[in-house]
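Hi W., the MU-OXO-diiron complex you wanted:
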Amino acid sequence: MQISRDIVYVGVNDHETVLFEGQYPVPNGMAYNSYLIKDEKTAVMDTVDERFADEWLANIRAALDGGSPDYLVVQHMEPDHSGSILRFVEAYPDAVLAASAKAFSMMSNFYGVSPDARRVTVGEGDALELGRHRLAFVTAPMVHWPEVIMTFEETEKVLFSADAFGKFGALDVDEPWLDEARRYYFGIVGKFGAQVQNLLKKAAGLDISVICPLHGPVLKDGIADHIALYDTWSSYTPESKGVLIAYTSVYGNTKKAVEMLEEKLVRRGCPETAVRDLASCRLSDAVADAFRLGTVVFASTTYNAGVFPPMREFINALTERGFSKRKVAFIENGSWAPTAAKTMKAMLEGCKDLEFAGNVVTLLSAPNEKTPAALDVLADELCR
Ligand code: FEO
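Structure:
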């Protein structure tokens, strides 16, 4: 794939991995992107997961047509991108590795790459001259690891953005960008909103024409829209005023109340409702919805004097990713001592800027004749 006359895609598609990073389902696979910049000096941007090293090296050989790369730029040391460094060094022993000081330290820890290997340490403001192309480096700590650098190619105005602006899904599967990019962002980078905001401040000073991320498609259109979306996500601002109802239900009784509330919200003209059964949905979808929408209703069975385990896992996934700036409500169920609402509220206590609904709906085993009215009051409050 030709990105421009001098920049060639040499990455690979992975249709073997079921759970990316051991936890995110990727039914459409994953792409590990790598790029080659041809000039008087040739640079390869990042490697790929080690399982695909042969295919990646073959792509480089084909793109180089007999030549040899002069540089390997290592922007990020997570093994989905660094796993083939040793294979590269074996294949091209004269090439120079360019990376941050932290990346070189990780390289030694992960792969035992010798400190004597040919290398150049780069950081903020440093640049690598290739000839017609100039690679200017931008540090991006915690997007998504501390060693990350991004690279702005100044002639063609290409931002090599490491994990940022990526998505789940291999490149040979045609699917919309947004949903899988959001699920990827909040799953993997969501905790680091402040660091992404810092990066966006640096990006604002660059005239970017193309974004080449390490996952997902190369972005050539709507660059400003993609950056604006990252600003929304990293500032924890909801995309929509809709409501997510995330629930657990052991015997279907809490679910009945959830369905009643959904219907009442729709009747009141709520702009959007999403309902997720936390025991059966992909956790990462529920997390993405919670950060997409402005209101989250947590509905849970009481369990061991707390909440049902999938709800606990969901709330933990939100709090560790900086859940904030939302309206929150609770529905609890308990046959003898309902404590789920109290437990859920306590779990969310450390979150910033949450507005807790004044009305908590409590079920004593199952909805009864008072439940519709209680849900009406809650729906009114949420739609106000
Ligand atoms: Fe795609 Fe943080 O690695």
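The pocket of MU-OXO-diiron is lined by residues 76, 78, 80-81, 144-145, 163, 214-215 (CB under 6 Å).

W.
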